Amino acid sequence: MTDFAATKALFHLPDGMIYLDGNSLGPLPLATPARVAQAVQDEWGDMLITGWNKAGWMAQPMALGDRIGRLIGAEAGHVTLGDTLSVKVYQALAAALAMTDRTVILSDSGNFPSDLYIAEGLIRAFGRGLELRVVDPEDVAAHIDGSVAVLMLTQVDYRTGRLHDMAALTAQAQAAGVLTVWDLAHSAGALPVDLAGCGADFAVGCTYKYLNGGPGAPAFIYVAPRHAATADPALQGWLGHDAPFAFEQGYRPGAGVARMRVGTPPVIQMAALDASLAIWDKVDMDALRTTSIRLSQRFIAGVEAACPDLTLASPRDPHARGSQVSFRHPQGYAAMQACIAHGVVGDFRAPDIMRFGFTPLFIDAGDVDAAVAVIARVMGERLWDAPRFMERAAVT
Ligand SMILES: Cc1ncc(COP(=O)(O)O)c(C=O)c1O
Ligand SMILES: Nc1c(O)cccc1C(=O)C[C@H](N)C(=O)O
After folding, report:
1. Residue minimizing CA distance to atom 5 of ligand 2
2. Among the three residues 264, 280, 296, which one is the final residue of a domain in this structure?
3. Per DSSP, what are the bridge partners of residue 325?
4. Relative to the alpha carbon of 215, which ligand is closest?
5. Most buried residue among 29, 45, 66, 222 by CB atoms closer than 10 A?
């Protein structure tokens, strides 16, 4: 059983701030600066080129992949790390498309734009009459049929937190001969995931949100063992080669998911992730889910009692959402800026969503109550009316 009061003490949380945005960029673990300094000084500084072996840099993508694998229910040895999530979406979707002659990529309107853009680009690149079919999230199951090549979904909707039933949709897809690509950006570290148990084909995700790897932290990719020896990596970089240091002229894919590696791994970012995963290694994901639900239910009850102008945008059933809660308000952007100015950090997603993440590793019931009090004041006194809250920043 994880002691969440103890994990809270492992993070740097700025004074006077209640951080409900760990679902977008996780906070800094206290151990990270020293681990990064070690990678810079002792490894890069003193070991120089020998660090690839001596400090284990070359083996890190698979080693860190296994530690993430525990959190997402992957078989050992079937997750690797590197690049950005958008790149890993490209590889997973391209690999899946290469395994079928069917033409439809099925996704939903709750998917993150990058995933849909990647699909559009791949359709042009493949040039075999592929089609992207985007349906409402609740209609996905009804559209799984024999024309569908790949079902590509983000398990937890980044705006509303709506949670897809991965087990049911994957089983239905499999029965119809459809391959699955799951984006776990808002799932990894948010709730227990069981890729192996569900029989998912491919999965991808990022490590800078719930997993606290820091801005620019590398993405991960999972390939089911049954495809590991045949999946086409789509981006044939030298570090995905079977023998990178043989420097052969022609490409031969590496063993298993290692073929999904592309080029040089981000060593300093991996050191930061190593430090945050030291916390995650000890987290009981069922306890995390129970606590996340308790916190988010408390938040919804508090906000709904105090702020009649806010409309719940997330599913009310906690088992039908991830670890975030969203409310709608016509002045959502300015209202969120006012909340941030008063110490409660969430974020805004167009057109009108105020989004708050619940991350039990460092948020507790006292934080929820304090956040509700601030939000109630902001909404009750229309504190967002000040002109300085109305102007939109480039990054929100
Ligand atoms: C669901 C989802 N997919 C893809 C991305 C893109 O990730 P990245 O910017 O790391 O490529 C994000 C976040 O930005 C996301 O939330
Ligand atoms: N990756 C981000 C970035 O580099 C800058 C600002 C925001 C992000 C995000 O992660 C957005 C995120 N995927 C979302 O859920 O909206």
Report:
1. 395
2. 280
3. 356
4. 2
5. 222
